[in-house]
Design goal:
Blueprint (H helix, E strand, L loop, with lengths): L1 H8 L19 H57 L8 H4 L8 H16 L5 E8 L2 E4 L6 H6 L6 E2 L5 H9 L3 E7 L2 E11 L5 E9 H25 L1 H81 L12 E2 L5 E2 L1 H9 L9 H7 L6
Antiparallel strand pairs: 1-2, 1-6, 2-3, 4-5, 5-6, 7-8
Helix pairs in contact: 2-7, 2-8
């Protein structure tokens, strides 16, 4: 009755045959499969979103590197153009005459200074200048001069370039254009040194300096642009993120409900299994008791059968013709011996005798006794 009530409470049909089969509880396999597909799609969506974000970040890094490279290439190109333009601002034979500190007049120095300084202010370069060599040492021949420097010194022509970069020296001696990043007493720069030859065959360097601080600012601007571009593309994915989040919340809610239902069914199944286990245990106990009783009955029946067989054998012995003495009433057995009637019946039929005397014999043997 308990099992029947539990089945009815669970909304299931009670069938006694079910007690011999495993109990199976299902909760909508098509719903479980659909939710598994949703979870799979959500995982795929997240993977695609992560791939998209990675691609955007990779593109931003690549774009920043490309922009920085193009910017440096463009700055180097402009430095080259500027350095090669210096000879056109000076007298054609200027570097043929710039052989020592007294070979160029102060008036010509001021005229050259004005041209080069005005040109430098119109460009993004910090310094543009030419360098000559004498006795293994290098000197500024036509440098840019700031107002502060002009107040410090009257003349900057043939001023010693004591901390000239080693790359400039290599450019001068190997007659090759070099680009170099370096720092000196005037600041930190990216510079170019272009070897030039005067009409008289004298070699000199035409140089231009771009401030590293300004270059770093341009790099930061390029980086900010790349980051903003990446953020823009990532912002375009926000609706998809919101949609996926909605699906995740819905799926989590459905999975939570399913887990609660599965727990309920599992608890119910455990109760059914527990009851079924108790019933099976009781049935097994009953079967064992019945088997023990059956064995006892079988043993009793076997003993009775043996007794009946023995009795039957004795009956068979007593049946038929039994030779008996007509005088003394002794009975001859199968071996030819004559036995008293009492002994023969006791041995072959298990009969016990008690001795008494009948009234006729009593009168015959004891006539004096009155009955």
């Amino acid at each position: 009755m308990r099992m029947r009530e539990l089945y009815h409470a669970a909304g299931m049909v009670y069938d006694q045959r079910c007690l011999t089969r495993p109990v199976t509880i299902t909760c909508g396999p098509e719903v479980v499969m659909r939710d598994r597909n949703i979870v799979r799609y959500v995982v795929y969506g997240l993977a695609c979103l992560a791939f998209y974000a990675s691609a955007v970040i990779a593109y931003a890094i690549w774009s920043n590197n490309q922009k920085t490279s193009r910017m440096l290439t463009e700055i180097d190109r402009r430095m080259l153009v500027t350095a090669r333009s210096l000879k056109y601002m000076l007298a054609e034979d200027f570097h043929d005459r710039a052989v020592d500190e007294t070979s160029i007049s102060y008036e010509e120095e001021l005229a050259n200074r004005k041209k080069i300084s005005d040109f430098c202010r119109q460009t993004e370069f910090k310094w543009i200048y030419t360098v000559v060599e004498k006795d293994g040492k290098f000197y500024f021949s036509a440098p840019t001069v700031s107002e502060e420097e002009a107040r410090q010194r009257r003349s900057w022509y043939f001023y010693p370039y004591a901390d000239i970069p080693e790359e400039f020296v290599r450019a001068y001696r190997q007659n090759t254009i070099v680009y170099v990043n370096y720092s000196d007493q005037w600041g930190s720069f990216r510079s170019i040194a272009v070897p030039e030859i005067s009409p008289g065959g004298r070699r000199y360097l035409a140089c231009a300096d771009y401030e590293t601080g300004r270059l770093d600012a341009l790099k930061k601007t390029t980086l900010v642009e790349s980051v903003l571009t990446a953020l823009f593309f990532l912002a375009c994915s926000v609706p998809f993120i919101v949609l996926i989040g909605h699906f995740l919340r819905g799926t989590a809610s459905r999975l939570s409900r399913m887990n609660a239902e599965l727990k309920k069914h599992r608890d119910h199944l455990e109760e059914l299994v527990s009851i079924r286990t108790l019933e099976l245990k009781a049935a097994n106990d009953r079967l064992r008791e019945e088997l023990r009783e059956r064995r006892r009955v079988e043993e009793t029946l076997s003993a009775k059968n043996r007794e009946l067989e023995e009795a039957l054998a004795k009956v068979k012995v007593l049946s038929g013709l039994i030779p008996i003495c007509s005088s003394c009433k002794k009975i001859r057995d199968d071996k030819g011996y004559w036995n008293q009637l009492e002994r023969y019946l006791h041995e072959h039929a298990g009969t016990e005798f008690t001795h008494g005397i009948c009234p006729d014999c009593l009168k015959r043997l004891y006539p004096d006794i009155k009955i």
